[in-house]
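User: quick one
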Amino acid sequence: MKKVIMGNHALSYGAMLARTQVIAAYPITPQTQVVELLSEMCADGTLNAKFIKVESEHSAMAACIGASIAGARTFTATSSQGLALMHEMLHWAAGGRLPIVMGNINRAMAPGWTIWTDQNDSLSQRDTGWLQFYCSSNQEVLDTVLQAYKISETISIPSMVVLDAFALSHTYEVVDIPDQALVDEYLPKFKPYATVTPDDPRAFDGLTGPEHYMELRYKLQKDMEKVPALFEETGRQYEKIFGRRLSAVEPYLCDDAEIVLVTSGTAGYTARVAVEEMRKKGLKVGNLRIKMFRPFPFEDCRRILAKTPKIAVLDRNISYGHHGIFSQELKSALYGTGNQAVFAFIAGLGGRDITADSFREMIETVSRTDRPTEDILWIGVKR
Amino acid sequence: MKKEKKMTLTLPIEEHIGAGNLACQGCGANLALRYVLKALGQRTILCIPACCWAVIDGGFPHSCADVPIYHCAFETAASTATGVKAGLDMIGDKETTVMAWAGDGGTFDIGLQALSGAAERNDDIIYACYDNEAYMNTGIQRSSATPSGAWTTTTPVKFPKDQPKKDIDAIMAAHNIPYLATASTSYPEDLFKKAKKAKEIRGTKFLHIYAPCPTGWKSRPEDTVKLGRMVVQNGIFPLYEVEGGEKYTQTIKVKDKKPIDDYLKLQGRFRHLKPEGIAMLQDEVDRRYARLLKKFENK
Amino acid sequence: MSIKKDKKKIVFESEKDMPTMPMSLGSMLWNKTGSWRNIRPEIKLEDCIQCGICWKFCPDMSVEIENEWPVINYDYCKGCGICAEECPVKCIAMVEERR
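Assistant: Done. Structure below.
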C-alpha cells in the first residue's frame, strides 16, 4: 500500500510492521511524531505492544534493555539531548548484546538551544557499539528499520536508524508500506540469544574482571566485522521479497569520476543535482552516499574510490580539534591504498541549509588545487 | 541425639542465595535478600544496579543465586525492572515477580528519578531498597540516606554529616503507591510477611529494608542483628506499612522507646559524637517519631 | 530449581568458549569463604534447644540443619559470630581458628 507519510511516521510504521513488543520513549522535538503515532497504534490495537511512557531518555533505554533481556522485541526513538542522556545505556545495550532498534532524528547539540539538524548527536555515540544507518528517504527509513531488526537479532548488536531533522523527519514522501505477511516472512519472531528467566536462572552483565572483559569486547568487534556481509545478505533477501535493494553504500556515477562527493543522509540527493549539472558541463563528478557508518564500510569505500583522484567529503558534523567525522573515517579507510586527495568540507551545522550551491562551491574548490589547502574547508561560514 | 524435638523454623527452609558469595562478615544486605527471596520464591527476577549486591553475587561467569538476575546501571533499577516486566507480559509470562534490588545510593540519590517515574506509572514491580546508609560498595561515602552526625569517608569526623536522612518513605507514600513498608533484617518474620504481601499486590510496591553494615559502620559483625533490633526499639527506624499512600499501620509496636545512646555506642561511625551532639540527634529522632506516630491508625 | 551445585570455578581458556552475552554459567560454591575466618563457632549440642535462631540469622547460609540439629558448614562460615551472639542459651562459642 502506498501512502504519503512523514519521515518520522516511516519509523513508526517500521516499528509496527516489525511487530515491536515493547516501546519505551520520551518526547523530544523533532522526534515526537514517531511516538505519537506509535501511542495511537498501541491504543487502537493496530500494534500489540506495551508502550512505557518513561520519565527520561535514560529510563527509555533502560526499559528497552529490561524488555529485551526478557525476550521482547523493543523499539525507541529519540534525538540530540535525549540521545546524549542515553549515552551510558547505549554502551549497556551493546555491551549486553541486546538487539534493540532505535530511531534517532539528527538534531544539533545545545547550547545554544537548537532543534535543527546536524549529526553531532549520533556521531558522538559512534564508539558505543551500535550499528548506525543514515537514511536519505522516508522509504529507506521504513525499510531500514526492518533490516536493522534482522541484522541486530542475528548478531546480537543494537541498531540506530538515523534521519535528518526536518529535512527528512518532517518531509512527506510517498512510501510503499509493505504487507504484514511479507514482513513476517522477512522478519520472523524474535529468538533471543538468552533471556532472564526463572526457568534457566542466570545472572547477566555482572562484575567482569580483567581475565574476561577483553574477550567479551573482542567478540563484539568480531561480530561487528561480520555486519557488512550480513548487510549485503539481508539486503538481498529484502530485495527478493519487497523489490527494493538496500545497500551499505550508494555510489552514483562514481566509476569514471575524477571528483567524488561523499555524503550521508539527505545531503546525498542535493549532491546529485550538482553532479548531474556538472556531468552536463562535461565534468566527471560522482556521489558516494555512505549509509552504514558503523561498522564503517571500509571495503566498499576502498573499492569504489580506488581510482578516484579527488574525494570531497561533506560533513554535517565536527569533531572539535580534529575534522569532520566522515572525512576522518574515510581517510583512515583509504590510508595506504592509493594516492587520493581527500578534501574535508564542513557545512550545514545546526540546520543551516545545504544546497546545490554548497556542492558547486565544493567542486570549484576541489578543481582549483591538487591537494586541500586547509585541513577543514568550511562552507558558508560568515567570516 | 538426646531429644526427639523438631527444630523451630519461623521461615521457609528453601534458600535462593547460596554460600560462596562475596558479602563481608555479618552483612545485613545478605540477610535482607535471603529473607525477601524466601517470601518471593524462585520465580523472581532481580534487577540489581551498582550496589553491594552487584559484587556479592559473585561476578561473571558466576552467580551465587538460583534466581535470575539482571545487573543494570546504577540509576536504572526501577526503569530496568519496568522494562523486564513489560517484556515478560509480552512474551506471555504474567506470573514471574520482578524486583528491583538496590542500595540506598541507587534509591535515595541517583535512582530516585527512575523510581519516581515507575511509582507514578504504578508499574507492577517490587522496588526493594536495602539501606546501609552510605555508599558502602565504593568505600563508605555519604549518601542522602546517611543519618546526621555520622562519619563517612566524605564526611570526616571534623565535619560529620549535618543533614538529616532523607525521608524516602514519605516521598514514596506521596506517590500514593498501593503498598510501602519499612523493615529491618532483625525482624525477619515481619519482613517476610511484608514481602509476601507485596508479591500479591499489583502495582508498585516499595520495601525499605534497614540492613546493618559492619564494614561501613565500624560495628562488630556479631552486632548486626542487635543493631537491627535497637534501631526499631529506639524509634530511629520504625517498622510500618502504608497502603494506598494513606493507611499507616505500625507492624512492630514499640512499648517503651529506648534512648539512642546504646545504639550509637556500638558503631564507630558515631564515636566522635559529644553529649550535645547526641542530644541533638535524640531530639531529631523524637520529633520524627512523634510525627509518624500521629499517622498510625492502630495506635 | 535449586542453587546450581557445581563447585568448580569457571575459567575460559579461549574467547570461543565464552558466551556472547556476559552471563553466569555456574555458582559461587568454588569460593570457600571459610578461609576468611579468624574465629569459628562451635555448637555445644547438649545445651541446644533447637530454636533455629542461629540458622535464621546466619547471613551466609552456613548454619545447616541436619536431622533437626544445627550444623556449621565450615567451608563457607565467615566467622561473623552472629550465631553465638544471638543464641538465647549461649551454647555457641566463638573459638580461635587454628590452621
